[in-house]
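Preliminary data (for renewal application), zinc ion complex.
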Amino acid sequence: MEQVERIIQESITQLQINDLKIAAVRSLKQFAIRQYNIMVREFGLPSVFLLLMATLANDEEEPVKRLQAQNELNKRFEFELPVGVPLQTFAKTYIEQNVTPVLDELAKVNALDPDDVSGRNSLRNRAEMEVRYNEHLNSIEELRASGHKLVICSVHSDCSERCSHWQGRVYSLDGTSGTTSDGKSYIPLEVATDVYYTTRAGRVYKNGLLGFNCRHHLIPYQPGYKLPVVNPNVEIQQRLITQKQRQLERNVRAWKTRAIELKDINREEYLKARRKAIEWNKRYIAYSREHNRAYYPSRTKII
Ligand SMILES: [Zn+2]
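Predicted structure:
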């Protein structure tokens, strides 16, 4: 556990957002415990060590060597019963039947966002959300600091339902409401951004315009500015394209994770997983191009 702690601490040194640091430590600790528990449940404690041996000593011609290694381990850890690859079983077959399914299960476990009550949001998503959210806060501060009083919110057609009501409107940064010189009404930015909701578990979140996962941005307002009005049907269509993109990204990541897990264990399955990852990545890129969307290598990256 001490070692896990050290790895976690090392991994967060480059994080600059404090909230994310705290969340990452909590999430990664839970992640390590869940992975460990799966291994202990499936193999028993001694076999967690022997699992390593089984993967190293997968030479089918040398059962004696394997037995020696096994005995050695048993002695070292003072276990009465030898556990691991049973005699007269090819290590490869044993691994395929008993180890690979568990590794698959391990690969499916994500590090989760510890503050998400649904338990579905991954730490990876949380990081992306935090970074974007932080950028929004900084940009509002910059606009304010450079003396802008009125801003207008950008418009994009695949906008979320949460934001669709707020996009394309003019806002003040000084808490005032009124009408611009060219006749547009404006309200304080906070009306759109400071929308709170309480989860069933009682946690309060701020989730309005420029909230988590928002891709809108603010531009200093100048009289005469006109932003395109989005047709609601187009909006729904575009939203579906975004969802499909996220699905394709998830597929690429899932196959990449599987490839990493299987790399030193099952060459055949490893190569298959790699091929699949490449295939899905091609599909992701082709789909994005077909729908005139940017594709992000960072979203399909694992490490
Ligand atoms: Zn938005």
